[in-house]
Design a protein that fits this description.
mainly beta; single chain; seven-stranded antiparallel sheet; Thrombin, subunit H; six-stranded antiparallel barrel
Length: about 210
């Protein structure tokens, strides 16, 4: 499976990746390093990981090289998500899938900016659907585990399905070779609560410890 995914992408997959890359942002809020972000809405909402943010005001750079100072709308360290806003419109927001319908074995692509390489793509499958223990009020949060390779610079970027829809937000590495993503249902819940809407993702049942590395 890995050999197949590391080979030449089909034309359909290549077109899908190109479309997703246009909805990807670079988020820089620390002196060194940075992460990725997802264009969540056409009117300037950008979603990323909370741990990508630092003490500096975040700077968001789009695929077309336009750069904006971003306002931090909300953060949730427990699920490692942050919602930003930039002064832009007509943005190519990425479609969001319902992660509660995911099945182990489905194809997944991680897109981000590891090692400063913009829009870098790795592929794999959904390896496991479980949950991670937290120290906050939730106790556990659902997570997606994938064998799509992640590295520093992938944080906050999308994990997408074969249709180019976001199924998760890439967050960390566990065990050295397993990527972890926050499910899109959790992200939708976070954004909806911030924006005054309602959405409740279905919880996972199995729990595991997490080891953030990116």
């Amino acid at each position: 499976m890995r050999d197949m995914l590391n080979g030449t992408l089909t034309q359909a997959s290549a077109e899908m990746v190109s479309s997703v890359q246009h909805g990807l942002a670079i988020v820089q809020a620390k002196r060194w390093g940075g992460g990725a972000g997802i264009l969540w809405s056409e009117d300037g909402l950008v979603l990323t990981n909370n741990h990508v943010l630092g003490r500096r005001s975040p700077q968001v750079t789009l695929f077309d090289d336009r750069s904006f100072k971003a306002e931090v709308i909300a953060t949730d360290p427990e699920v490692d998500l942050a919602l930003l806003r930039i002064d832009a419109d007509a943005l190519p927001a990425i479609a969001i899938a319902d992660s509660t319908e995911l099945r182990v074995g489905e194809m997944a692509f991680a897109i981000g900016h590891p090692w400063g390489q913009r829009g870098y793509v790795t592929g794999g499958i959904i390896s496991h659907l479980s949950s991670a223990q937290t120290r906050g009020r939730r106790g556990v949060v659902p997570i997606i585990r994938t064998d799509a390779a992640l590295a520093p610079g992938n944080s906050g970027g999308p994990l997408v399905n074969a249709s180019g829809e976001v199924i998760g937000i890439n967050t960390m590495i566990v065990g050295g070779d397993q990527g972890v993503a926050i499910p899109s249902a959790v992200a939708v819940d976070f954004v909806s609560n911030v924006m005054g809407q309602e959405y409740s993702p279905a919880p996972s049942e199995e729990s595991m410890e997490q080891e953030p590395l990116i």
